[in-house]
Automatic annotation (TrEMBL):
<protein>
    <submittedName>
        <fullName>Type I restriction enzyme HsdR N-terminal domain-containing protein</fullName>
    </submittedName>
</protein>
<feature type="domain" description="Type I restriction enzyme R protein N-terminal">
    <location>
        <begin position="35"/>
        <end position="144"/>
    </location>
</feature>
<dbReference type="Pfam" id="PF13588">
    <property type="entry name" value="HSDR_N_2"/>
</dbReference>
<dbReference type="InterPro" id="IPR029464">
    <property type="entry name" value="HSDR_N"/>
</dbReference>
């Protein structure tokens, strides 16, 4: 797997048939190691280990609906009241972050209404603070540290 622009972490990779699996500490099981999963696992460890978000408030691939479509969020950090705080869309390192990707996350966030939105391919990371009253996305230079007490 490709080196990413995220802190390294101790991961456990095994092989099952033709697939490589990586242990997901949040789901507590091995999952197929795809290029996108490689980015997601690095980002989960970055959120918890570097930014200080509690492991119990981070959710992977939770289902949500937009209009009549069923969607899955890559990562969502919830606040202590159970409301979405930070929504993360992960792409494989070879996938460029385009306006279409930004639109995809914006659509998801219309339903979730997380205060922060992050898009990463493991090499580039973009973060916005969302103001739902003014309908503005304010770009941030850094992903916010956990501010929960």
């Amino acid at each position: 797997m490709e080196a990413l622009n995220l802190p390294p972490f101790k991961y456990k990779i095994t092989k099952s048939g033709a697939n490589y699996l990586i242990f997901d500490a949040l789901r507590r099981k091995n999952v197929v190691l795809t290029p996108e999963e490689w980015v997601r696992q690095h980002f989960v460890h970055y959120l918890i280990g570097t930014l200080g978000y509690p492991k119990g408030l981070v959710s992977i691939e939770r289902g949500t609906s937009y209009n009549t479509l069923q969607k899955r969020t890559d990562l969502c950090v919830y606040n202590q009241q159970g409301k979405p705080h930070l929504l993360v869309e992960c792409k494989a390192a070879y996938v460029p972050i385009t306006q279409d990707v930004v639109k995809q996350v914006s659509v998801y966030n219309q339903t979730l209404q997380a205060e922060f939105v992050v898009i990463t391919n493991g090499l580039q990371h973009f973060c916005w603070q969302v103001d739902f009253e003014t309908r503005k996305f304010e770009p941030l230079q850094e992903i916010p540290l956990c501010s929960f007490e």
